Amino acid sequence: MELNLKGKVALVTGGGQGVGRAICKELAAEGAKVIVNDLFPERAEAVAQEIRDAGGEAVASPGDITQVESVNALVAKGREALGPIAILVNNAGVTPERRAKGGMPPLFVDTPDREMHQTVELNVFGTMYCCRAVLPDMVAQKWGRVISIASEAGRIGEARLAAYSGAKAAIIGLTKALAKEHGRDRVTVNVVVLGAVSHEGIAPGQATSADATPENNERLAKMLNAYPSAKGLGRLSRPEDVSGVVAFLASDRAAFVTGQHIGASGGYAMP
Protein backbone atom coordinates (compact mmCIF):
# COMPACT_ATOMS: atom_id res chain seq x y z
CA MET A 1 0.00 0.00 0.00
CA GLU A 2 1.45 3.36 -1.03
CA LEU A 3 1.12 5.78 1.89
CA ASN A 4 2.62 8.79 0.10
CA LEU A 5 4.39 10.32 3.11
CA LYS A 6 7.42 11.39 1.09
CA GLY A 7 8.61 14.82 2.20
CA LYS A 8 6.15 15.13 5.09
CA VAL A 9 7.78 16.28 8.32
CA ALA A 10 6.83 14.21 11.37
CA LEU A 11 7.52 14.92 15.04
CA VAL A 12 7.46 11.87 17.32
CA THR A 13 7.67 12.39 21.08
CA GLY A 14 9.27 9.70 23.21
CA GLY A 15 10.91 8.44 20.03
CA GLY A 16 14.10 7.15 21.61
CA GLN A 17 13.03 3.59 22.33
CA GLY A 18 10.25 1.02 22.13
CA VAL A 19 7.06 2.01 20.34
CA GLY A 20 8.34 5.52 19.63
CA ARG A 21 11.49 4.23 17.94
CA ALA A 22 9.46 1.87 15.75
CA ILE A 23 7.13 4.70 14.75
CA CYS A 24 10.06 6.95 13.82
CA LYS A 25 11.61 4.23 11.66
CA GLU A 26 8.32 3.26 9.99
CA LEU A 27 7.45 6.84 9.08
CA ALA A 28 10.98 7.35 7.73
CA ALA A 29 10.70 4.16 5.67
CA GLU A 30 7.54 5.61 4.13
CA GLY A 31 9.46 8.73 3.11
CA ALA A 32 8.72 11.12 5.96
CA LYS A 33 11.38 13.39 7.43
CA VAL A 34 11.44 12.67 11.15
CA ILE A 35 12.07 14.86 14.18
CA VAL A 36 12.98 12.43 16.95
CA ASN A 37 12.12 13.78 20.38
CA ASP A 38 13.09 12.14 23.64
CA LEU A 39 13.80 13.34 27.16
CA PHE A 40 17.24 11.73 26.86
CA PRO A 41 19.38 13.32 24.09
CA GLU A 42 21.48 10.20 23.48
CA ARG A 43 18.39 8.13 22.75
CA ALA A 44 16.98 10.69 20.32
CA GLU A 45 20.28 10.99 18.48
CA ALA A 46 20.72 7.20 18.26
CA VAL A 47 17.34 6.77 16.55
CA ALA A 48 17.93 9.74 14.23
CA GLN A 49 21.26 8.20 13.25
CA GLU A 50 19.59 4.84 12.57
CA ILE A 51 17.24 6.59 10.16
CA ARG A 52 20.06 8.49 8.45
CA ASP A 53 22.13 5.30 8.13
CA ALA A 54 19.16 3.70 6.35
CA GLY A 55 19.05 6.58 3.86
CA GLY A 56 16.31 8.65 5.48
CA GLU A 57 16.18 12.19 6.83
CA ALA A 58 16.00 12.74 10.58
CA VAL A 59 17.11 15.12 13.28
CA ALA A 60 17.22 14.66 17.03
CA SER A 61 15.35 17.30 19.01
CA PRO A 62 15.42 16.29 22.67
CA GLY A 63 13.42 18.10 25.30
CA ASP A 64 10.98 17.82 28.17
CA ILE A 65 7.45 18.05 26.77
CA THR A 66 5.99 18.84 30.20
CA GLN A 67 7.60 22.29 29.92
CA VAL A 68 5.99 24.62 27.38
CA GLU A 69 9.26 26.50 26.73
CA SER A 70 11.00 23.22 25.98
CA VAL A 71 8.23 22.17 23.58
CA ASN A 72 8.41 25.46 21.72
CA ALA A 73 12.20 25.15 21.45
CA LEU A 74 12.25 21.54 20.24
CA VAL A 75 9.54 22.25 17.67
CA ALA A 76 11.44 25.31 16.44
CA LYS A 77 14.64 23.28 16.11
CA GLY A 78 12.91 20.55 14.14
CA ARG A 79 11.09 23.02 11.93
CA GLU A 80 14.31 24.89 11.15
CA ALA A 81 16.10 21.67 10.23
CA LEU A 82 13.41 19.88 8.21
CA GLY A 83 10.55 22.29 7.53
CA PRO A 84 6.95 22.84 8.72
CA ILE A 85 5.51 19.96 10.70
CA ALA A 86 2.72 17.96 9.07
CA ILE A 87 2.52 14.91 11.35
CA LEU A 88 2.60 14.83 15.15
CA VAL A 89 2.75 11.57 17.07
CA ASN A 90 2.21 12.08 20.80
CA ASN A 91 3.88 8.90 22.02
CA ALA A 92 5.60 9.89 25.29
CA GLY A 93 3.40 8.76 28.16
CA VAL A 94 5.22 6.93 30.96
CA THR A 95 7.47 8.88 33.31
CA PRO A 96 11.05 7.59 33.71
CA GLU A 97 10.46 7.31 37.46
CA ARG A 98 7.43 5.07 37.02
CA ARG A 99 9.18 2.89 34.43
CA ALA A 100 12.24 2.54 36.68
CA LYS A 101 10.12 1.51 39.67
CA GLY A 102 8.33 -1.28 37.83
CA GLY A 103 6.38 -3.74 39.95
CA MET A 104 2.87 -3.20 41.29
CA PRO A 105 1.73 0.45 41.27
CA PRO A 106 0.08 1.76 44.45
CA LEU A 107 -3.64 2.15 44.93
CA PHE A 108 -4.97 5.61 44.14
CA VAL A 109 -5.30 6.58 47.82
CA ASP A 110 -1.61 5.75 48.32
CA THR A 111 -0.30 7.46 45.20
CA PRO A 112 2.06 10.35 46.03
CA ASP A 113 0.95 13.78 44.84
CA ARG A 114 4.12 14.22 42.77
CA GLU A 115 3.54 10.96 40.91
CA MET A 116 0.00 12.02 40.01
CA HIS A 117 1.23 15.41 38.84
CA GLN A 118 3.97 13.86 36.72
CA THR A 119 1.50 11.52 35.04
CA VAL A 120 -0.91 14.33 34.18
CA GLU A 121 1.84 16.74 33.17
CA LEU A 122 3.35 14.26 30.72
CA ASN A 123 0.21 12.79 29.21
CA VAL A 124 -2.22 15.71 29.29
CA PHE A 125 -0.21 18.91 29.30
CA GLY A 126 2.61 17.42 27.23
CA THR A 127 0.12 16.37 24.56
CA MET A 128 -1.65 19.73 24.69
CA TYR A 129 1.59 21.71 24.44
CA CYS A 130 2.78 19.68 21.44
CA CYS A 131 -0.57 19.97 19.65
CA ARG A 132 -0.72 23.70 20.21
CA ALA A 133 2.85 24.14 18.96
CA VAL A 134 2.38 22.30 15.65
CA LEU A 135 -1.24 22.94 14.70
CA PRO A 136 -0.44 26.36 13.15
CA ASP A 137 1.91 24.61 10.69
CA MET A 138 -0.82 22.15 9.76
CA VAL A 139 -3.47 24.84 9.37
CA ALA A 140 -1.14 26.86 7.14
CA GLN A 141 -0.44 23.80 4.97
CA LYS A 142 -4.13 22.79 4.90
CA TRP A 143 -3.00 19.26 5.77
CA GLY A 144 -2.06 17.60 9.01
CA ARG A 145 -2.16 14.47 11.12
CA VAL A 146 -2.18 14.31 14.92
CA ILE A 147 -1.92 10.79 16.31
CA SER A 148 -1.74 10.19 20.04
CA ILE A 149 -0.80 6.94 21.72
CA ALA A 150 -3.08 6.02 24.60
CA SER A 151 -3.78 2.95 26.71
CA GLU A 152 -6.77 0.72 27.20
CA ALA A 153 -6.60 2.05 30.76
CA GLY A 154 -8.04 5.26 29.36
CA ARG A 155 -11.00 3.50 27.77
CA ILE A 156 -11.97 0.98 30.45
CA GLY A 157 -10.00 2.02 33.56
CA GLU A 158 -7.42 -0.06 35.41
CA ALA A 159 -7.09 -0.63 39.13
CA ARG A 160 -3.84 0.80 40.55
CA LEU A 161 -3.58 3.04 37.49
CA ALA A 162 -6.24 5.63 38.34
CA ALA A 163 -4.20 8.73 37.54
CA TYR A 164 -2.82 7.14 34.38
CA SER A 165 -6.30 5.97 33.32
CA GLY A 166 -7.67 9.48 33.84
CA ALA A 167 -4.81 11.09 31.92
CA LYS A 168 -5.20 8.75 28.95
CA ALA A 169 -8.97 9.30 28.94
CA ALA A 170 -8.29 13.03 28.76
CA ILE A 171 -6.25 12.49 25.60
CA ILE A 172 -9.24 10.79 23.99
CA GLY A 173 -11.49 13.74 24.87
CA LEU A 174 -8.91 16.24 23.61
CA THR A 175 -8.61 14.29 20.37
CA LYS A 176 -12.34 14.44 19.66
CA ALA A 177 -12.47 18.18 20.33
CA LEU A 178 -9.48 18.94 18.09
CA ALA A 179 -10.91 16.73 15.33
CA LYS A 180 -14.06 18.87 15.37
CA GLU A 181 -12.11 22.12 15.41
CA HIS A 182 -9.71 21.29 12.60
CA GLY A 183 -11.60 19.11 10.14
CA ARG A 184 -12.12 22.26 8.08
CA ASP A 185 -8.32 22.54 7.84
CA ARG A 186 -7.91 18.99 6.47
CA VAL A 187 -6.28 17.98 9.76
CA THR A 188 -7.25 14.60 11.20
CA VAL A 189 -6.81 13.80 14.89
CA ASN A 190 -6.88 10.23 16.19
CA VAL A 191 -5.74 7.95 19.01
CA VAL A 192 -4.13 4.52 18.83
CA VAL A 193 -4.92 2.58 22.00
CA LEU A 194 -2.48 -0.03 23.30
CA GLY A 195 -2.34 -2.81 25.83
CA ALA A 196 0.89 -4.39 27.07
CA VAL A 197 3.73 -4.07 24.56
CA SER A 198 6.99 -6.03 24.61
CA HIS A 199 10.00 -3.88 23.79
CA GLU A 200 13.61 -3.19 24.61
CA GLY A 201 12.77 -0.43 27.10
CA ILE A 202 11.38 -2.94 29.59
CA ALA A 203 13.84 -4.57 31.98
CA PRO A 204 14.72 -8.22 31.21
CA GLY A 205 12.75 -10.61 33.36
CA GLN A 206 9.58 -8.52 33.38
CA ALA A 207 6.52 -9.97 31.70
CA THR A 208 6.57 -7.43 28.90
CA SER A 209 10.32 -7.48 28.18
CA ALA A 210 11.36 -8.31 24.64
CA ASP A 211 12.96 -11.61 25.68
CA ALA A 212 9.97 -12.94 27.64
CA THR A 213 8.06 -15.94 26.28
CA PRO A 214 5.11 -17.91 27.67
CA GLU A 215 7.58 -20.73 28.30
CA ASN A 216 10.07 -18.72 30.39
CA ASN A 217 7.71 -16.26 32.07
CA GLU A 218 4.75 -17.55 34.06
CA ARG A 219 3.15 -14.11 34.38
CA LEU A 220 3.29 -13.60 30.62
CA ALA A 221 1.60 -16.95 30.06
CA LYS A 222 -1.28 -15.79 32.25
CA MET A 223 -1.44 -12.35 30.60
CA LEU A 224 -1.97 -13.88 27.17
CA ASN A 225 -5.42 -15.02 28.24
CA ALA A 226 -6.55 -11.38 28.40
CA TYR A 227 -5.61 -10.75 24.75
CA PRO A 228 -7.54 -12.77 22.14
CA SER A 229 -4.90 -12.19 19.45
CA ALA A 230 -2.08 -12.96 21.88
CA LYS A 231 -3.51 -16.39 22.64
CA GLY A 232 -3.23 -17.31 18.99
CA LEU A 233 0.15 -15.70 18.36
CA GLY A 234 1.72 -16.79 21.64
CA ARG A 235 3.06 -13.31 22.33
CA LEU A 236 2.11 -9.81 23.39
CA SER A 237 2.06 -6.84 21.06
CA ARG A 238 5.37 -5.58 19.68
CA PRO A 239 6.29 -2.04 18.57
CA GLU A 240 5.92 -2.94 14.90
CA ASP A 241 2.31 -3.96 15.55
CA VAL A 242 1.70 -0.31 16.47
CA SER A 243 3.88 1.58 14.02
CA GLY A 244 2.02 0.31 10.95
CA VAL A 245 -1.30 1.55 12.34
CA VAL A 246 0.25 4.96 13.02
CA ALA A 247 1.72 5.16 9.51
CA PHE A 248 -1.69 4.37 7.99
CA LEU A 249 -3.40 7.07 10.06
CA ALA A 250 -0.68 9.52 8.99
CA SER A 251 -1.44 8.90 5.32
CA ASP A 252 -4.06 10.08 2.85
CA ARG A 253 -5.51 6.57 2.98
CA ALA A 254 -6.99 7.61 6.33
CA ALA A 255 -8.25 11.03 5.21
CA PHE A 256 -11.78 10.24 6.42
CA VAL A 257 -10.72 8.79 9.77
CA THR A 258 -10.80 11.43 12.50
CA GLY A 259 -11.84 11.76 16.12
CA GLN A 260 -11.40 8.01 16.60
CA HIS A 261 -9.73 5.87 19.27
CA ILE A 262 -8.54 2.74 17.52
CA GLY A 263 -7.50 -0.27 19.54
CA ALA A 264 -4.25 -2.03 18.65
CA SER A 265 -4.27 -4.17 21.78
CA GLY A 266 -5.15 -7.59 20.41
CA GLY A 267 -8.73 -7.35 21.59
CA TYR A 268 -7.96 -6.62 25.25
CA ALA A 269 -10.93 -4.24 25.23
CA MET A 270 -13.71 -3.96 22.66
CA PRO A 271 -15.66 -0.80 23.59
From TrEMBL:
> What GO terms in the biological process aspect are recorded for it?
fatty acid elongation
Q: What are the GO MF terms of this UniProt record? A: oxidoreductase activity, acting on the CH-OH group of donors, NAD or NADP as acceptor
Question: Per its UniProt entry, which superkingdom is the organism in?
Answer: Bacteria
Q: Which InterPro entries match?
A: NAD(P)-bd_dom_sf, Sc_DH/Rdtase_CS, SDR_fam
Stored Gene3D superfamilies: NAD(P)-binding Rossmann-like Domain (3.40.50.720)
Q: Which family does it belong to?
A: Belongs to the short-chain dehydrogenases/reductases (SDR) family.
Write the protein's name.
Answer: NAD(P)-dependent dehydrogenase, short-chain alcohol dehydrogenase family
Species of the source: Muricoccus roseus
